[in-house]
Design brief:
Number of helices: 18
Protein name: Sporulation integral membrane protein YlbJ
Structural class: mainly alpha
Pfam family, one: Gate
Helix content: over 70%
Radius of gyration: 22 Å
Length: 407
């Protein structure tokens, strides 16, 4: 039997089994689905929507091209990606997963970056945003705002390490014309020229651009919501039928080799599927804090199969391959876990022992600000989501129903 036929049988059995498990466990499936919907409804949609819309407008008006020219001398020699990658990196960190993939796919569609460069770029621009790390994980789960400093440092340094590693991805391919022309200093004159040329090239009026940005952003977020709900249910079903416990036995051996507590095996497995649930379960274990931080850092960096499925769906519309992204998630998980271990004493224990007099001011207020903002998003998130969906329905009806009626 060919590999293709075996794959067909596997997927058919897998999907059929999952469907049967959902039918046999309707209450648990509904609870998991509701939980996934709540995460998307309250947090993911309202926090990502503004970034998605603004990024579409920035690309359309040429601002991203302008930033790309200015950052070319920095991004090209260090990461072997165009300067526009600096915009994607910054927006990815600010807005969180899967924004890095969304923006990378967008500039690839604009042909501002090659497929190989896009594969390098997407590998290190996938990250959790600071609000999630400080507000949800550090404060919400661990009830320790200062722990967010350690988790964030390990997370973003892991991103940097992946970027430096992935610069070697692609081997010794021919040097592109852009790399040959790369200069040491940024050219503001050239950046302004590119900004103007891009704006002139854009033929859509402002209203059309804004409408397209809203439509595209909400469609992406609806897809993301579907994946969050699906993997929330999938994770619950695996726990019900005992697969999670079986995998935990295997993972316990690996954790024992690393001298980490066996109790973290189930939280780790849950985190491999869904990042939020995994970190919550890690925080609820009774093992020592260092072990918790190492596993939490790995889960944050790996991102969970739920997020990776979202990225795969986004990249499917381009010629960017998913495999490099997947391996870079494993790589960042390892980097972040090691960095968390190395920084635990100097960046957390020493700060804790010096509180409250010697800790820098920005470290004291930053976590609190993130916590307050996170709580504000949770409170206002549903209202923002409802209003945005109503706007989307109006725009969709106007373009697809009213227009057809007129003609």
């Amino acid at each position: 039997m060919s590999l293709s036929k075996l794959k067909t049988i596997f997927f058919a059995v897998f999907i059929g089994g999952l469907t049967l498990a959902i039918i046999l466990n309707p209450k648990e499936s509904l609870e998991a689905s509701t939980r996934g919907l709540s995460i998307w409804w309250e947090v993911v949609f309202p926090s990502l929507l503004p970034f998605f819309i603004v990024s579409e407008l920035l690309i359309g008006f040429g601002v991203v091209k302008f930033i790309g020219v200015l950052l070319e001398p920095f991004m090209r020699p260090i990461f072997r990606v165009p300067g526009v990658g600096g915009f994607v990196w910054a927006m990815g960190m600010a807005s969180g997963n899967p924004a890095g993939a969304k923006f990378t796919a967008r500039i690839r569609q604009e042909e501002q970056i090659t497929a190989l460069e896009a594969e390098r770029l997407v590998s290190f621009t996938s990250s959790s945003n600071p609000l999630f790390i400080f507000g949800a994980v550090a404060v919400g789960f661990f009830n320790d705002a200062s722990l967010g400093i350690l988790l964030a440092a390990a997370h973003y340094l892991g991103n940097l390490c992946v970027g430096l590693t992935m610069r070697f991805y692609g081997g010794t391919e021919q040097t592109t014309m852009a790399e040959k022309k790369a200069t040491i200093f940024p050219s503001i004159k050239l950046a302004l020229k590119e900004l103007h040329a891009t704006r002139i090239k854009e033929s859509r009026p402002l209203g059309k651009m804004l409408g397209d940005a809203v439509m595209s952003s909400i469609q992406t977020l609806l897809m993301i919501g579907g994946f969050i709900i699906l993997f929330s249910v999938f994770n619950k079903i695996l726990a019900i039928i005992g697969v999670t416990e079986f995998l935990a036995i295997i993972f316990s051996g690996g954790l024992a080799l690393l001298q980490l507590a066996n109790e973290l095996s189930i939280p780790l497995i849950s985190g491999i599927f869904e990042i939020t649930l995994g970190n919550r379960l890690v925080s609820e274990t009774t093992v020592n804090l260092l072990d918790k931080v190492i596993i939490a850092s790995f889960i944050l960096a790996f991102g969970g199969l739920s997020i990776q499925a979202q990225v795969a769906s986004i990249l499917a519309d381009t010629d960017i391959r998913f495999k490099p992204f997947f391996f870079s998630r494993i790589l960042q998980g390892l980097y972040s876990a090691i960095i968390a271990f190395l920084l635990f004493k100097p960046l957390y224990l020493n700060l804790q022992s010096n509180l409250p007099n010697e800790i820098p001011v920005f470290l004291t207020y930053s976590p609190q600000w993130a916590k307050d903002y996170w709580e504000m998003i949770i409170q206002t998130g549903p209202l923002i989501t409802i209003i945005s969906l109503l706007v989307y329905i109006y725009l969709y009806a106007r373009r697809n129903i009213f227009t057809k009626t007129l003609y």
